[in-house]
Each structure stands twice: as structure tokens, then as C-alpha cells.
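Changelog excerpt

This revision adds worked examples to the README so contributors can see how folded entries look when concatenated. The first example is reproduced verbatim below.
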Amino acid sequence: MDENTPPPPDHGSTPPPPPAAAVAGSPTDFLRGVVGNRVIVRLTSGVDYCGILSCLDGYMNIALEQTEEHVNGTITNQYRDAFIRGNNVLYISAAEPV
């Protein structure tokens, strides 16, 4: 090796840390963090409900406040309170960055 050649990578050291998105925490931590905030709940039927997550249980039964129902991107209904049975939930997403 001459002076201009970089040293080979050291494979015996620890790997680099994962990207920031992969270190976000557990799903339970996420759900605890979004209670009281706006979320988007996608049902297995493809319908979205956007509202403030007031509570949820271990079966993913969800209670939302100030809820809007979206079908194909269009608001079809608005509800003060909405209760969604957990077996219909495809995913829950934060509507705003957490």
C-alpha cells in the first residue's frame, strides 16, 4: 500500500447505526404517542377515517373524535365520535409528524 491508498474497511468493528426511520420504536410506543392527536385509520375495505384518537384497546378497537370519513379521497361523512371495530383496521397512521 502506498500513502494515497485508503486502508481497507475494518470488518471486525460494529456495523454502522441503522437509518433514523428504523429507530422509531415499537408499535406500542407509536400508539401511545398518537393518543390525543390526529390519525388516519385505513380499513380493510379501503375507507379512511381521519380524526383525533381518543383511545384504543388490545384488540385495536378505536375511538375517534371529530371524525371525517373518506372514500376514494372524498369526504363522505363527518361524525362527532366514531367507534371502529379492530378486526376492520388495516393500519393507523399519524396525520401529522410525531
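The second example, added in the same revision:
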Amino acid sequence: MENEMSSKSAYGCIHRFKPFLAVIFLQFGFAGMDVLSKVALNEGVNNYVLVVYRHAIATVVIAPFAIILDKKVRPKMTFSIFTKLMLLSLLEPVIDQNLYYNGLKYTTATFAAALYNILPAITFLMACICGLEKVKLKSIHSQAKVVGTVATVAGAMLMTLVKGPVIELFWTKERNNQGAKGGGTNFEDTIKGSLMITVGCFSWAFFMILQAITLKTYPAELSLTAWICLLGTAQGTLVALVMEWGKTSIWSIHWDTKLLTALYSGIVCSGLAYYIQGVVMKDRGPVFVTAFSPLNMVIVAVMSSFILAEQMYLGRVIGAIVIVAGLYFVVWGKSKDYKSGSPPADGQMVQLQDKQTTDTGSDDNENSNPVANVPNVSSRGAATQDEQIHRQRDQLIV
């Protein structure tokens, strides 16, 4: 009995921590993509072609798993679902990623990763507009989310407009010239890059919201990922042909950084990321998925200071701190929403227990009937409902 209880508790702990481990894995994956993409772009890789190859590789990797594993759960394709898939593949694979790569050319990997911390706040705003989040201005939790959203926007503006003195790190002092080349961007380039990355954040936030909505009518995560990557490849190819018309040399691919970046970002950051986002989003919502982006910023800052010799500036560090502080106001308010969801479960449990007691009393009055096996059935049904309520409450508390 004790072994069963311990195994159940261990399974419960693993089940509770799975969403956290999944989104942390995503941030490590995105951090590697940020640094690798910056290296590839510095070497002259075309960003439009990189987007196409990235999603073509993701399609080849994910499609076989989707065909086999989603065979029983994949719903019938309808015009409404296909329209959503087309919009999803336009928002993230085409608009967001092309804007992000263009913005990355004008800034640094650390700056781009830090600015992307406004994504949870934008996602929260769009979730409110779409009715996926509710705001009650008299509630402290809702006030925290609103204040956090304003703070993230203020931090993003501070990062963009205020540079400040260079923060010297002991492992970059001997590479000042290289660091200036890797991290020194003029004010005009910073504004351009910031605008592109910010618009990309809005596109990605809308993608997250639409993905959460689409999963309600198309609950096959692998198939959804495969469709997004396939349609993103087709749309990205059209964009690349229009933007780089007549430049056939940019499509050539060799065993170099371009291929490595396309393979890594395609498999990890498109294929796996879209799928993991969808799985976690069904349980926790789009705001939770984007709430761990500051971890990406820290990882990129450390990696890029070693690999790219990028310099850090005081104004941008302060702006990043303001963004993170605002972000966790949003996360705190969101976590309280989950905790405040537990009382209804308790109330529902009380009602079920009262119903079970009533059923038991009525069954006692019918004990004279030898055919009356209803008490056993009703108690088993009530016990099953009780277990379901316990599981729901555990999920809400998490």
C-alpha cells in the first residue's frame, strides 16, 4: 500500500513539473537558435532562404510522426480549420521569423533576446481582447497583470533608447575590438531592429492565441505542427522569390553554417517547439508558455559574450531588468488565477458528497428489495466522480 502511495505521489510530482521542464527546454532551444542564427547572418546567409529551409526540414522530420501517431485523433479537415492553418503559417513562420532575422541583422543576439521579453505582455493583451483572459480592475491579481504589462513596454523603450556605458566582463576584456564589432550598432540601426523585432513579437503573440483557439477544433498537435511547417515553407518560398528575385545563388546550400542553422532551428525551434507549445498550451494557456522568456535572455547573454564577443551596456541591462520585473507581475497575477480556481472544485465536491449521502439514504430504505444493487453502482460512480474532482483540483493548484 505504501509503495503504491509513493509511486502515485512520484507520478503526481512528475506530472506537475512536466509543463515547467517543457518550457525551460524550449528556452534553451531558442537561445541556441539566437546565437547560431546571428553567426549565420554575420556570414552573409540570406534570412528569407533560411526561413524556407528551416521549415522544409521541420516538415520532413515531423510529418511522418504526424501521419502515424495522429491517425486516430486527427479530425476531418474543414475550410474553417484550413483557413486558420494558413493564417498560423503566415504569422509565425513567415512574418515573425523574417522580421526577427532582419532585426537581428541590425542589433545583437542579446538585444533581440532581451527585447523578446515583451512577448508575454503582448500575449496577455491579445488574450484579453480575444476573451481567453479576463481582467477585473478591482482585483489585485488583474492589477498586477496590467502593471506588469505597462512595465514591460517601458523596459523595452528604455532598452531601445538608452545605451549607457559598456559593462566590461573579464572574459571579453582581451577582445574589445572584436566585441565592438559584434555588439556596436548605431542608434538608427537599433531603432530599425527594435521596430522589426517588436512587430515580430505581435505576430508571434497572435500566433500563440490563434494556436490555442485552433487546438480546440483541431486537437492533433503533431498534425497541426506538420501543417504549419508545410504551409510556412510554401508561403516563405513565395516571399523569398519576390524579395530576392533573380538571385539564384542564395539558394545554394553546402556543409556550412547555413545548413547547420537550418537543421537546428528547423528540428528544435520549429518542429519540436510548435508541438511542445501546443501540448503545454492545452493545459496551461498561451501566457504560461511565453512566461519563461527571460531565461532565454540570460542564456543568450552568456553564450553570445563568449561566442560573439558581444558587449553589454548599462542602459540595456536596466531595461532588461524592468522588463523581467514587469513580466513577473504578469506571471504572479496569472498564477493567482490558477489558485483562485480551486474553490469551485471544492464546492462541486461538496455537492457530490451531499448527493452521494442522499443516494445512500434512499438506498437504505430500499434494502428490503433483494434485487436492489443500485447502492454499489451509485457509490462507485460517486467515488469515480470524487477522484476526478481531486485530480482537477490538483491541476488547478499547480
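Reviewer comment on example two: The longest strand covers residues 166-167. The mean pLDDT is 76.
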